[in-house]
Amino acid sequence: MAAQNDVRIQVSEDKTGQHGQGEEFDYSQRGQWVRAAVLGATDGLVSVASLMMGVGAVKHDVRAMILTGFAGLVAGACSMAIGEFVSVYSQRDVEVAQMKRDNRTAGNNEQEISEKESLPNPIQAAAASAFAFISGAMLPLLAAAFIADHKIRLGVVVAAVSLALVIFGWVGSVLGRTPVVKSCFRILVGGWMAMTITFGLTKWIGSTVL
User: In 24-149, which ranges are continuous DSSP H helix?
Assistant: First the structure.
């Protein structure tokens, strides 16, 4: 009976240990794709909004702002996709070369096949990066598309971008288990700085230099 009780206690401890391990989660792994998604969306949001604010500093025509923003969306999405594809493909080549060296020494072909399946996919990375950029870039375009008054249009773009930046910061902090206020504050101030600098410099160049 004592031996059986010992076995039951051991099994119970094993289950408890497994359960405890199952509850643990490595947020550093999640943080990698969270960072990539938030970075892509934020880049699209801030860069396209800054372009539109720069054009809006010297032109009151809504078509000029929309066309500039759309050109920034297409160019930025292509740039993000190509850059991510090249970067991930280079990383993949390095990992494959290292795996071949390791497996050549160990003589383990099964491990090589398993490791190849876990390698990063350049096409998926490029598509995800472009999609994230486009998702962020669409917001300032939609915010400005239906407003005729120039000053109100600029204010609505700034307000919409600010709200989106706060949401992006909140989502990133929740998924990555980081402080919410600091995350939202950093991303919001960065977006404001980008739009303000672009607006101010473009207005100064348009009024004094050109």
Answer: 27-56, 62-106, 109-117, 122-145
Question: What DSSP string runs through 19-33?
Answer: HHHHH---HHHHHHH
Per-residue pLDDT of the chain (210 residues; tens, 9 = 90+): 444 444 444 444 444 444 444 445 444 444 556 666 777 888 999 999 999 999 999 988 899 999 999 999 999 999 988 988 898 888 888 888 888 777 777 655 555 555 566 677 888 888 888 999 999 999 999 999 888 899 999 999 999 999 999 998 888 788 777 888 888 898 999 999 999 999 999 999 988 876
- The residue type found at 180 is V
- Contact between 166 and 184 under an 8 Å Cβ cutoff? The reply is yes
Residue 60 contacts residue 147 (beta carbons within 8 Å): no
pTM: 0.73
CA torsion sign for 164, 61, 51, 131 is positive
Determine whether 109 is exposed, middle or buried from the number of CB atoms within 10 Å of its CB (0-12, 13-18, 19+).
exposed
Q: What are phi and psi of 46, to 5 degrees?
A: -75, -45
Per domain, the residue ranges of the chain are 33-209
8 A C-beta contact, residue 73 and residue 137: yes
